[in-house]
Amino acid sequence: MQANRVNRWRSLAALVGVVTAVVALQVPGAAVAADQLTVAEAIARQGGTGTVRGHVVGQPTATTTVVRSGFPSDYALALADSAAETDPSEMLYVQITASFRAEFGLRTNPDLLGTRLDVTGPLRSYFAHPGLTSPTAFSPVGDTEPPTEPPTEPPTDPGDYDETYYRSALGLTGDALKDELHEIISTNATLSYSQVWDALKKTDEDPANSANVILFYSGRSQSKNSNGGGVGQWNREHVWAKSHGDFGTATGPGTDIHHLRPTDVQVNSARGNKDFDNGGSPVPGAPGNLTDHDSWEPRDDVKGDVARMIFYMAVRYEGGDGFADLELNDAVSNGSRPYMGRTSVLLDWNAEDPPDAFEQRRNQVVYDDFQGNRNPFIDHPEWADAIWN
Ligand SMILES: [Ca+2]
Ligand SMILES: [Ca+2]
Ligand SMILES: [Ca+2]
Questions:
Q1: What are the boundaries of the signal sequence (predicted)?
Q2: According to the model, what pLDDT value does residue 354 have?
Q3: Fewer Cβ neighbours under 10 Å: the N or C end of the chain?
């Protein structure tokens, strides 16, 4: 159904394009149809709706960064009036929503670079830059040939993202690095809380048994279908406790699967909303985990995973999107304040337990299949020290 609708749009828009071209030929100097805008006009006329015609000149990955190769995702493209344009201020940033990604996303269709498109939708800021969001139609213009080369394989080595996704962050440290990473990773859409169940069945699948997930704290492999609220079942743990900033389970930090993990119901309950720190007594049902009245120490195999999820949340959520600005501190007993500790212990855990294949694969699945954004600290664990040390 979706594909048919897209194809009908494409056919209709292509027909309109032909008619427009004929009219333009017959009436020298005639402008294109009233609602058809150049990129310069669309930049000048933010607000309202229009059809913008322009050349595909790359993928915006930040307000002033547009990449022309190694496209990191199918989520956005930049249009310009000239195919050779390299100045982002002369570009319109176009959001590519889910139904258009297979045909117009640049990672899947890198050959679209340089071709012309008509895109219809509201002229609204995107990446804090003149843009077009929530498009209603895309169509190729003129004699553009469909791509003949098969799409390039998406990169899978975390280092492969340095020249694309992370290019604007390389070499930065401190707050400048944190700010730039925030821009890069804040392109994600999150699932509904009910959709999180199925997502976790993919992200946390047991590599040795595809019918199971690995429970985060206990390390137990358990049937994907034994989820729920009963004793011995697994449920959805917010590693950044949702009371720290009180974001609940609405779309946003409450459903951001970069920090949601399957856990044993009773172990989840024992962890509660405690901060992370070393020490305590053994946790029943979760070997290697320790807890006391104010903190939780996870088993060694996931200490670094915990740290990197907390680092991600502190960078992703900066208070600009209706949710609290989540931040690290070196305390415990943070309660409902939007903080999570302890910073010093989390930095140690990040160093002691570097990313392994399971964690890297998980980051890739979240990026490819669900949210379109990455946890930078899984790709570059050294960035935690560059920001917080
Ligand atoms: Ca403690
Ligand atoms: Ca680990
Ligand atoms: Ca923050």
A1: 1-33
A2: 96
A3: N
Q: Which ligand is nearest to the CA of 331?
A: 1
What spacing in Å lies between the alpha carbon of 316 and ligand 3's midpoint? Answer: 6
Domain range summary for the chain, segments of one domain joined by +: 2-140, 158-388
> Is-contact 130 124, C-beta < 8 A?
no
Asked if 213 and 221 touch (Cβ cutoff 8 Å), the reply is: yes
Ligand 1 centroid, distance to 157 Cα (angstroms): 37
State how far the Cα of 202 lies from the Cα of 337, in Å rounded to an integer. Answer: 32
Q: Specify the DSSP element, H or E, that contains 42.
A: helix 39-44
The ranges of the chain with pLDDT < 50 are 1-34, 144-155
DSSP class of residue 215 equals -
pLDDT of residue 143: 56
> Would you state the pLDDT for residue 26?
35
CB neighbour class for 255 (10 Å; exposed up to 12, middle 13-18, buried from 19): buried
pLDDT of 152? 43
User: How many whole angstroms from 333 Cα to the centroid of ligand 1?
Assistant: 9
The span from the first CA to the last CA of the chain, in angstroms, equals: 52
Q: 56, 66 in Cβ contact below 8 A? A: no
Question: For the purposes of burial, counting CB atoms within 10 Å of the CB of 312, is it exposed (0-12), middle (13-18) or buried (19 or more)?
Answer: buried
Task: Tell me the per-residue pLDDT of 294-331, one tens digit each, with 9 for 90 and over.
Answer: 999 999 999 999 999 999 999 999 998 899 999 999 99
Ligand 2 centroid distance, CA of 381 (Å): 12
